[in-house]
Give the backbone structure.
Amino acid sequence: MARVIVDVMPKKEILDPQGKAVHGALPRLGFDGITDVRQGKRFELEVDEADEATLAEVREIAETLLSNPVIEDYSVRVDEAAE
Amino acid sequence: MRIGVVTFPGSLDDTDAQRAVKLAGGEPVALWHGDHDLGAVDAIILPGGFSYGDYLRCGAIARFAPIMAEVVAAARGGMPVLGICNGFQILCETHLLPGALIRNDHRTFICRDQVLRVENATTEWTSAYDEGQEILIPLKNGEGGFVADADTLDRLEGEGRVVFRYVDVNPNGSLRDIAGITNERGNVVGLMPHPEHAVEDLTGPGTDGLGIFTSALAALTAS
């Protein structure tokens, strides 16, 4: 068994209202050193084997369903700790 | 003329859309997301609501509903297709329309009667209006900010594919005040405001929304 992680983040040029809301809350908690926050999503996909064919399939899943390429970027990586 | 309204799990405004079709003089046909059957309709409406709970992204899962294969094929074949609010989000996720809808810039759900300017009165859903006409239509959304890259926005403007624009106030951070757009052919239109809620004086701010539905019926009768 292996775990593949897909991170999806709003593109840099796209407004991220959720990240802004989180960022806006930080000074109220006394955290003044954070200059920006962006909020994304993390998907954990369990697979039998993280071989090249599986990773290609995961990239296709990330591109077609998990992310919207118009507003988001994604990255795919194998979770080494899970193996 | 038969206009189908697709109900997804979480659709809210499907019955209002059906009612609007009826008031406009058409025959509404209820369609189910899980079917591969368009019921011999002449046009299709994807209604507002929160299909699949808006999980993942608004419209992202509805895009892969069984009936969407038929809807996409029909739209590519020239059938009039209208997406209202969540339906607009689904059309963008399906890539029948460019761009995407993101969370309102002010981060709050908005519900107001909104003035729109009809920028393109030649689509299959807007021919009952005059270009430049201002209409009052309810708007209610949490994720209605229309975004696209600058090239896409320029192309939409250059090709006259911005169909509706917000007037006086930009309620959700939509780029260039865009409230609704169309595809190259003019048969697919998506907009965030809800014309089906402005078809009777009793239940809405007026009847300015009726023209959307009479436009499609007129286009179908003429063809």
In short: Residues 2-222 of chain B form a domain with the Rossmann fold fold (CATH 3.40.50.880).
